[in-house]
Amino acid sequence: MKDDLTQNERVKVLIIGSGPAGYTAAIYAARAGLKPVLYTGPEPGGQLTITSEVENYPGYPAGITGPQMMIDFQKQAERFETDVRYGVVTAVDFSGWPHTVTVDEKTKISAESVIISTGASAKWLGLPDEARLNGAGVSACAVCDGFFFKGQDVVVVGAGDTAAEEASYLSKLVNKVYLVVRRDEMRASKIMQQRVLNASNIEILWNTETVSILGEHSVEGVEVINNQTGTKIILNVTGFFVAIGHKPNTAIFKNILNLDDSGYIITEPGSSKTNIMGVFATGDAQDRIYRQAVTAAGSGCMGALDAERFLAEKEMEVASFSH
Ligand code: NDP
Questions:
Q1: Of the candidates 69, 67, 64, which has an alpha carbon nearest to the alpha carbon of residue 54?
Q2: pLDDT tens digits for 271-294?
Q3: Does 225 contact ligand 1 (Cβ within 6 A)?
């Protein structure tokens, strides 16, 4: 890995993002001799670096931690001479060809093809207290921060698989978990719900929403309201974990690429092609349904194969033009 000092460079394949989609695209593009350059983005390794055990990725019968898996992905990409660089792509210009990508607001790179693998990030409730106390008891990652709440009481908000997973993980560390669910049922898969229900120290508060987070410098309690009865109570907790899903990291592509209502990049069915020639979208940035490491990796492979085909066609076009 090297720092980005390059100016006015032209590359065949530029990959944005370093999760399973980005690294898989890199492995395929590198093995095809395309010398890909991959920019890691602000969170090298992506969401898997804030996951504990990954048990559903084929090929790891004993499971593997998310961070280790991403180290392995990176090593495999670098083995085939992917140029992995720390840097954040801050702007793109897809109006001509080659495309122009700006890194860290200063370095412009020409790219004959771009593979977008920018992933998704955790959503927040939008309460002012959440931002005020972020890092002081408020978190969106139990695996990262659960350790600090050993033996204490915490709240987890959400009712999907993420919330169930976070609550189960925390229940092994903390004294008690209040799982705050806004409806009278959970969206999580049956097996994950069962894990939550089996934990003796997880209490589910149904039809309940967060009103405010109390505490001046750190979380000292959480006020919740039952949306059926209107009854408010204060939970004496020191931790507040938000686990209500994710949003795609696609802000820099707004008004440039076709995005759906939630901001996911729209790709042609059965391919990674976007509405711009030579720009391909892979992984969670374009997948609102599956959002798994293995599906992201599969779509990264599609991105690399689509880019390879595109570049071969471009080369033929140029060759026939010059004859
Ligand atoms: P989901 O979109 O599935 O669930 C989000 C949950 O948060 C919903 O229950 C929703 O409530 C709740 N929610 C949303 N906004 C608010 C709000 N403002 N206040 C209170 N609650 C709110 O996201 P997940 O991150 O849980 O899962 C995403 C995908 O990833 C799923 O496909 C899931 O299966 C997968 N996943 C798989 C895992 C695994 O297999 N180990 C682990 C984690 C995720 P409501 O139901 O009322 O809309």
A1: 64
A2: 999 999 999 999 999 998 888 899
A3: no
